[in-house]
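Sample intake sheet
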Amino acid sequence: MAQLKMYRMMDRPIEEPALPEGYSYGAFDPEKDIHAWCECLRGGHLIDGRTDEEAYRDEIVNFKDIDPARDIQFLDYNGEHIGTATCFTWSHNGHGDMHQVGIRSDFRGKGLAKYLSYIVLKKTKERGVKILELTTGEGRPAAVRSYLAAGFQPVEYDYRMQERWEAFMRDWKIASLDMLYEDGTPYKTIYADKTDRKVRFGVMGAGRGKTMMNYCLNAGNAELVAVCDKNETFLRERTAGFGDGVALYTDFDEFIKHDMDCVVLANYANEHAPYAVKAMEAGKHVLSEVLPVQSMKEAVELAEAVERTGMKYMYAENYCFMGAPKKMRKLFKEGRFGEFEYGEGEYMHNCGPQWAELTNADPDHWRNTMSAFYYCTHSLGPLIHISGKRPVSVSGFEGAYNEKARRMGIKAAPYGMEIVTLENGAVVKSLHGVAPSKNSIWYSVYGSRGAMESGRELSGSGVNTLYMNADEVVGSDDGKFNDTNISDGLTEFAEASGHGGSDYYVMYNAVQHIRGNKNADVIGVYEALDMFLPGYFALLSALDGGAPKEIPDLRDPAQRDKWRDFDACTDPKSAVGTVLPSCAHGMPDIPGEVYDRLREALRKDE
């Protein structure tokens, strides 16, 4: 779990405490003071069991930004070093850092920490540094309170930081604190005895939506107020146990009149865009399941609805929040892997055993008629989210139609593959399908400083396992950096949620985004389209023999105008103009007996 982070803004006044008699500030001499430095820290930050030289090397020498003779400060008593703190300046962001603070064991409990804080503040201000930072943990309450007394403020920079600070404040009777973002700008005032109002959710689709409904029941920051499903019997079955306060609807237009903050769209994947537009026009934020749209016309309408209404649109591409890709994104954002250069994503899902149930053995069900390319965001989405780059062109390739797809009644290829070029020239490969012989979910990325990949299902590990080899700096080829721990502040809460805990992250971030937290990791409308449009244009590419197709950037109004009326897609209900073939190799001829057999299998399972 990430440590608590605190900032001292150096434009605020520094109050100099009067040193008691016998005390003074001292300088560090690398030739003779290493043992005294260790004695000040032993039993505190410093891990016992190392020699003094090992501890000094690990905690000081290995930091390239630290000059020991300049940066290590001492508090002395009658000429002896009895306390220490290190203050240095990070080269990557210009922040000061208050590092390795400790009082010798025989002087602890005397309130001396404020003098170490002062000397670090003084030295930091003299260097012209604007922000002084430190990290610590709730397990050091005396230290945390001394830092607060010195003018440090809590920082919102990782999952559950606000909740953790509020719990600390309740334990130690601190009424309120002004919290900052990691860039030093104000976040909000947080209180020990006041929690933020729960975000009120309505869920459309009682099947897939059950996971989001359960989040509202258990997470503490959300409330389920309404559920809509066209099947009233199913609706009542799925909402049993949620209480009489949850309103039930079978009509979406009535549902969105309900007093709520956000609508979760967990209905059929080919119907999300029209419902999203309706919800936002009714003044509701939207959390949309996969897919965001199925045509360019819908894409333009969705983007412009977000801009026109000012409501928040969030795309629930949960595979971005599986353990390995979630950590990959964090490390790229921190710069640990340099520039994104290449990536591969797989979502090969053997749906054969449950396909009849998923489609109700209906030959015209959207799952049977949708192009294999369209369901690309589980494989491609995490790569887009990790890289932070926009796709600019794609070539699409289909797997040959096979006997398994025929047995399942699918009118599309068993799998599709996109080769996508990103705006920085990086290339990614996205492979996905519903009719492989075995499952495979896997991600691999390369940066200018190293490579990472998730585990593979067939190897006994999975997508919540991470492997890496990274260099300290570009070109060093030393492979020294290794951080495969995927745990964070939400892990223990998310583990019981669906899809390896990723559904919990989607909901938690949606709540934070609606509350105004700019650190919320959400996928907005344009990134959602960046994840889907490569699949859409991959079908057009495959129909053109794999020729590359340019992917428009719908952030640009001029590009939106070119595609405003282009409704071509594989769904006859949506494509008024052109219905695209769901299989680029030619539409398969599936005899009616296939669906008869599937319906018979369903009856036997009932």
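Comment: The chain has a mean pLDDT of 95. The longest strand covers residues 80-89.
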